[in-house]
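>> received
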Amino acid sequence: MTTNVQTTLRPGTYTIDTARSTCRLTATHMFGLKPVQATMELLGGTVTVAGDLATSSASAVLDASTFHSDDPRRNKDIVGKKFLDAAQHPMIAFRSTGCRRTVAGWLLDGVLRVRGHDSAVTLTLDRAEPVDGGCHFVASAVVDRVAAGVATGRGIIARPVRIDLDLYAG
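>> returned
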C-alpha cells in the first residue's frame, strides 16, 4: 500500500463536495463467483484537519436509496426491506472516533451506522492532499456487511464489501 498523505494540509473544517465526490462499493455475488460494483450518493459530510493530524476527524452520510449497480432488479432488492431497508433507514452514516498513524500509513477508525445498527470500521487513508480551495482524500475500507447489520442474502452476496471513497472537500 502506498500512502500519500501530505502534511501540508491547512488545518480547518472542510465540507465534502457531494457533486465531485464518489463512493464505490465492490462485493461478490453468486457464491463469490461474480464481482458486483455499485455506487451510492453522498448526502454530505465534513473533514476536520487538525494541526496534529492524529486529532483529525471526519463524518459522512450516504443516501441508502441510491444504491446503483448494473442490474435494476438488484438495485431494488438492495434498497428494499431485506437489505438496506432504505424506506425505514434512509441514511448510512460514518463518524470517526480516532485517527492514527501506522507503519503502513494513516488509519481513520470510526462507527458505521447501517439500518440503525452501529459497527466499527477502519478507513485506510490512501491520499490526502491540498487542492484549489480545499483538500482531496482517497480512502478505502472493507466492511463485514453482517456485522454492519445486513445479515440477509447469505450465498447471494459475500460478507465483505469493499468501500472506496474519492472525496473533495472545501
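>> The first strand starts at residue 4 and ends at 5.
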